[in-house]
Amino acid sequence: MQPRNDASDDSGSAFDRFRGALRVLYHGSSPAALRFQMAVILVDLAIIAFFIASPVLRGQPSFLWVDYSVAALLAGDIVMRGLASSDALRWLRQSTVFVDIFILVTLLMPYTLANLGFLRILRLWSLSRSGMLWKPLRRAGYATWRDAAHAAVNILTFLFVVTGFVYTFFFREGSGIEGYVDALYFTVATVTTTGFGDIVLPGPWGKLTSIATMIIGISLFVRLAQAMFRPRKVFFPCPVCGLQRHDVDAVHCKACGTALKIPDPGD
């Protein structure tokens, strides 16, 4: 009995070491961890590019092989992120995890859930909510433009989701939409309320789609404009009240009046 317990202990220790190594790679700040995180980001961006091009590539002979390969990569990433988490149950309750699992299901059933494939682009939103995406860029001033970056990702995600929806449900003979580019053109013209009128979605559902696209799209554009053009703030937590954003030339915290010593940007 004793040898069996020793083997079990060794196995548990090896598993703990494996989880610890994953935690360092996914959440660490060492040069090796940053290289790993950058590689993961590049793979994610390539996967997102595949998702955007999927409506056009679906008829290609190699599409199914690429689809299942992406499914294997995404499944591995989900499992490793879960193992790297210190609280797996809390991690599973995150909305980004639900989105990734849903995307994985659409990849495993590409034809059964073909009409929901356009939602795969939500991976871009999921990636933007990951701290890994921004960690390698913090030294480039992430703290000053992260709101604008998040707003830009939101509008891009919305544009491609609506484009995929329009292409999936309105692309048919005589609809005026002859391909994916036409669907993207219609989406951008609708979101910006330009309304050229050369491409119009047919029927009441088309009108409702246009209305929802305009309302949500203009709201996201306003959010992006606010993030880009509002007065610039610096990220410097107040040592007393914890307020994190202050004016560039602030001498005192506007919340509690504590004297601040914000370093010069050039320091």
UniProtKB/TrEMBL annotation:
<keyword id="KW-0406">Ion transport</keyword>
<feature type="transmembrane region" description="Helical">
    <location>
        <begin position="151"/>
        <end position="171"/>
    </location>
</feature>
<feature type="transmembrane region" description="Helical">
    <location>
        <begin position="32"/>
        <end position="53"/>
    </location>
</feature>
<feature type="transmembrane region" description="Helical">
    <location>
        <begin position="96"/>
        <end position="122"/>
    </location>
</feature>
<feature type="transmembrane region" description="Helical">
    <location>
        <begin position="208"/>
        <end position="225"/>
    </location>
</feature>
<dbReference type="InterPro" id="IPR003938">
    <property type="entry name" value="K_chnl_volt-dep_EAG/ELK/ERG"/>
</dbReference>
<dbReference type="InterPro" id="IPR013099">
    <property type="entry name" value="K_chnl_dom"/>
</dbReference>
<dbReference type="Pfam" id="PF07885">
    <property type="entry name" value="Ion_trans_2"/>
</dbReference>
<keyword id="KW-0407">Ion channel</keyword>
<protein>
    <submittedName>
        <fullName>Ion transport 2</fullName>
    </submittedName>
</protein>
<keyword id="KW-1133">Transmembrane helix</keyword>
<keyword id="KW-0812">Transmembrane</keyword>
<feature type="domain" description="Potassium channel">
    <location>
        <begin position="157"/>
        <end position="228"/>
    </location>
</feature>
<dbReference type="GO" id="GO:0001508">
    <property type="term" value="P:action potential"/>
</dbReference>
<keyword id="KW-0472">Membrane</keyword>
<dbReference type="InterPro" id="IPR028325">
    <property type="entry name" value="VG_K_chnl"/>
</dbReference>
<dbReference type="GO" id="GO:0008076">
    <property type="term" value="C:voltage-gated potassium channel complex"/>
</dbReference>
<feature type="transmembrane region" description="Helical">
    <location>
        <begin position="65"/>
        <end position="84"/>
    </location>
</feature>
<keyword id="KW-0813">Transport</keyword>
<dbReference type="GO" id="GO:0005249">
    <property type="term" value="F:voltage-gated potassium channel activity"/>
</dbReference>
